[in-house]
Write a structure and sequence with these properties.
single chain; 246 residues; mainly beta; Umud Fragment, subunit A; 8-stranded antiparallel sheet; globular
């Protein structure tokens, strides 16, 4: 009897072990879920969105694996990202914190804001003002913004929000170093991104984690916790479930 109990325990431990190995492999090589905790990417990504990020899109580095083990300090099977990609990366300052931002600058590019205009390689990024009734947040505050559809050199478009009072009207010119990238938040006046050289700055290609592909779940945390199931009709954003990200 004791032997059978022991055998059952061993079998269960083996099952758990194999399940963990499979989960780590999937998470490291294929897809990893991430939670959006801030409003820096509104209106495209909202606080409470949960997304799948493909780990294979840009190849692999130590940051593809849990705890970023220092086993190899290069990328393998590297593929170049594209303008406007939604990219998850490790911040260069600590190589641990995950950020998601939009890729605006490639190695060698120059980026600058002049009178509120986004300049890429000394040319104004094409933008078209659009009418949206969505409110946009910055922490606990609601911002008064203009929405624009911006188009990058490869033809990819996205929606960016600019504070009507223009807190980021003018910046220094940023020159992206070799093997680095420049990222901006879509909520331009509520995003800690590559404009802040002391906290994010230019992101080395080694720190790319993956490309955001899909929102698989979304819950408006301002209207209630996911665990308060009796309030799901107010807090769940069902229209965002399984939304593909461009």
């Amino acid at each position: 009897m004791k032997y059978k109990i022991f055998e059952t325990i061993i079998d269960n431990l083996k099952t758990i072990f194999y399940a963990l190995i499979i989960a780590i492999v999937i998470r490291s090589l294929f897809f990893q879920p991430f939670y959006i905790p801030s409003s820096s990417m509104e209106p495209n990504l909202l606080v409470g969105d949960r997304i799948f990020v493909s780990k294979y899109t840009y190849g692999y580095s130590k940051h593809s694996f849990p705890f970023s083990p220092s086993i190899y300090n290069q990328r393998i099977l590297f593929k170049n990202p594209n303008y406007a990609d939604l990219v998850v990366f490790k911040t260069p300052q600590d190589n641990r914190t995950d950020y998601i931002k939009r890729l605006i600058g490639m190695p060698g590019d120059s980026i600058q804001f002049i009178d509120g205009k986004l300049m890429l390689n000394n040319k104004e990024v094409k933008k078209e003002k659009i009418n949206l009734t969505k409110s946009i947040r910055c922490g606990a505050q609601t911002l008064d913004v203009h929405y624009f559809k911006e188009t990058l050199p490869n033809g990819k478009t996205y929606i960016a929000a600019y504070n009507k009072y223009g807190t980021q009207q003018n910046t220094d010119k940023y020159i992206v170093p070799k093997d680095h990238y420049f990222f901006l938040g879509d909520n331009r006046d509520c995003s800690k991104d590559s404009r802040f050289l002391d906290s994010v700055g230019y992101v080395p290609k080694l720190n790319l984690v993956g490309k955001a592909k899909m929102i698989f779940f979304s819950n408006d945390t301002a209207k209630g916790s996911f665990f308060k199931f009796w309030n799901w009709n107010n807090s769940l954003r069902i229209e965002r479930f399984f939304m593909r990200l461009k």
